[in-house]
């Protein structure tokens, strides 16, 4: 239990954390991977190389320190992280490893400024936070067992693979043991584990792109290439594209994630789904669920992509557009080609903007779900706030470590 004095010490460290947070977290990860290499499998090296993981952790530590007297303010962030931890199989015994390396890093980075009182206060603060995560993650593990029938990793067979676009491949996965699948919540992801030739298991989260209640899971994976010199290509995505074939076996953990389609809060309010690139995967699952479960609701689906070559699920969306009169699909390309224009593969060109939202939604109040790359989400958030959309009506998911849309 944190004392009042310890809470005050934690709050006093906020300015230091804001100034040195990334230095601290970078040191922390380097130290933990050196001292406890057994945890390496839980982390994506691309996020480490880009610094996004370090920045996300630094932001999380600052947020916790600022809200140390009222951790309920962080309930949404705690749920997101707890779901991610469960998806990767993180257990209670991993928390002391993180705590030991975090406290040691605070002392090593801050030097003499890290007094015994500061270390003791942060030890108590970390212990309280760890207890919170362990309790919530235990609940999620039990829920997975009750609903889906397993926790941890289970063997699935690739029943089918197909190209969704030039850079995205879809894998249809069924349980090797033949047991039926319980419906996932639209928007959830599964964790896939494979072991490439080097013998080191790799785990990655992939959103489920299929209709909830299907007899299979479908993941649709973009081939991730290095963004800059020295950065690694996506280890798992390239392995799935190049090496995994129909009939092969992979391992999956049960569905996780808090970015899910919620019941209609207000009758008559349109549902607007906005997808950028491969961010369409959870949004497409939501679309199926909304059309089947809310047949009288107006649904507006905005798909943003570079061009027709990398636009996934063209035929699938065309079929849905024909079958459901309450569905409007609008495709916008930011870098359309001449072939796209000749074949009329899109409805408009440019980035997502206010004019398009005005055209499709007008002055109606609506509920919005967005998923895609961080720049698009930041831009979309600003557009929606300019329209005075309430925070409660904006739902979003980043691919990769979460950031702050309002930054």
Task: Estimate what percentage of residues fall within beta strands.
Answer: 15-25%
Structural class: alpha/beta
Rg calc: 22 Å
Q: What's the SSE pattern? A: HHHHHHHEEEEEHEEHEHEHEHEHE
The pLDDT mean sits at 92
Question: What topology does this entry show?
Answer:
Elements lengths: L3 H9 L1 H22 L9 H6 L1 H15 L8 H14 L6 H16 L5 H33 L5 E12 L2 E8 L13 E6 L7 E6 L9 E6 L12 H9 L5 E8 L14 E6 L3 H14 L5 E7 L8 H10 L3 E7 L4 H6 L4 E2 L4 H8 L5 E6 L1 H13 L7 E5 L9
Parallel strand pairs: 7-8, 7-11, 8-9, 9-10, 11-12
Antiparallel strand pairs: 1-2, 1-6, 2-5, 3-4, 3-6
Describe this structure in words.
The structure is a single chain. By secondary structure, the protein is an alpha/beta fold. It contains 13 helices and 12 strands. It has helices spanning 4-12, 14-35, 45-50, 52-66, 75-88, 95-110, 116-148, 235-243, 280-293, 314-323, 338-343, 354-361, 374-386; strands at residues 154-165, 168-175, 189-194, 202-207, 217-222, 249-256, 271-276, 299-305, 327-333, 348-349, 367-372, 394-398. A 6-stranded antiparallel beta sheet has the order 4-3-6-1-2-5. A 6-stranded parallel beta sheet has the order 10-9-8-7-11-12, with helices on both faces. Helix 10 (314-323) links the parallel strand 8 and strand 9 (327-333). The longest helix has 33 residues, at 116-148. The mean pLDDT is 92.
Please sum up the structure shown.
The chain has helices at residues 4-12, 14-35, 45-50, 52-66, 75-88, 95-110, 116-148, 235-243, 280-293, 314-323, 338-343, 354-361, 374-386, and strands spanning 154-165, 168-175, 189-194, 202-207, 217-222, 249-256, 271-276, 299-305, 327-333, 348-349, 367-372, 394-398. The protein has 407 residues and is of the alpha/beta class. The strands form two sheets. A six-stranded antiparallel β-sheet has the order 4-3-6-1-2-5. A six-stranded parallel β-sheet has the order 10-9-8-7-11-12, with helices on both faces.
């Amino acid at each position: 239990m944190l004392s009042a004095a310890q809470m005050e010490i934690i709050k006093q460290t906020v300015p230091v954390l804001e100034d040195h947070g990334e230095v601290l977290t970078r040191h922390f990860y380097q130290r933990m991977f050196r001292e406890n290499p057994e945890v390496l499998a839980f982390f994506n090296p691309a996020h480490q190389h880009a610094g996004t993981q370090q920045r996300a952790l630094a932001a999380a530590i600052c947020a916790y320190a600022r809200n140390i007297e009222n951790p309920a303010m962080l309930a949404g962030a705690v749920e997101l992280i707890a779901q991610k931890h469960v998806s990767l199989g993180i257990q209670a015994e991993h928390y002391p490893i993180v705590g030991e390396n975090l406290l040691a890093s605070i002392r090593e980075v801050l030097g003499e400024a890290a007094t015994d009182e500061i270390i003791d206060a942060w030890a108590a603060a970390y212990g309280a936070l760890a207890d919170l995560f362990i309790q919530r993650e235990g609940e999620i593990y039990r829920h997975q067992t009750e609903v889906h029938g397993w926790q941890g990793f289970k063997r699935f067979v690739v029943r089918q693979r197909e190209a969704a676009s030039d850079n995205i491949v879809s894998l249809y996965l069924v349980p090797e043991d033949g047991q039926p699948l319980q419906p996932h919540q639209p928007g959830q992801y599964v964790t896939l584990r494979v072991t490439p030739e080097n013998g080191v298991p790799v785990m990655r989260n992939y959103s489920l792109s299929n209709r909830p209640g299907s007899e299979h899971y479908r993941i649709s994976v973009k081939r991730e290439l290095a963004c800059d010199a020295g950065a690694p290509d996506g280890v798992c995505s390239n392995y799935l594209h190049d090496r995994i074939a129909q009939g092969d076996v992979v391992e999956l953990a049960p569905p996780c994630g808090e970015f899910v389609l919620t019941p209609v809060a207000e009758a008559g309010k349109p549902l607007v789904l906005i997808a950028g690139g491969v961010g369409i995967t959870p949004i497409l699952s939501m679309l199926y669920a909304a059309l089947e479960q809310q047949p009288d609701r107006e649904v507006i689906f905005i798909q943003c992509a570079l061009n027709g070559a990398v636009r996934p699920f063209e035929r699938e969306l065309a079929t849905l557009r024909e079958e459901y009169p309450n569905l409007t699909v609008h495709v916008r390309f930011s870098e359309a080609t001449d072939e796209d224009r000749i074949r009329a593969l899109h409805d408009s060109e440019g980035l997502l903007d206010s004019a398009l939202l005005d055209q499709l939604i007008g002055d109606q109040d609506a509920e919005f779900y967005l998923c895609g790359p961080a720049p698009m989400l930041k831009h979309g958030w600003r557009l929606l706030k300019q329209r005075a959309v309430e925070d409660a009506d904006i739902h979003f998911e980043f691919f990769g470590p979460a950031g702050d849309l309002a930054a």
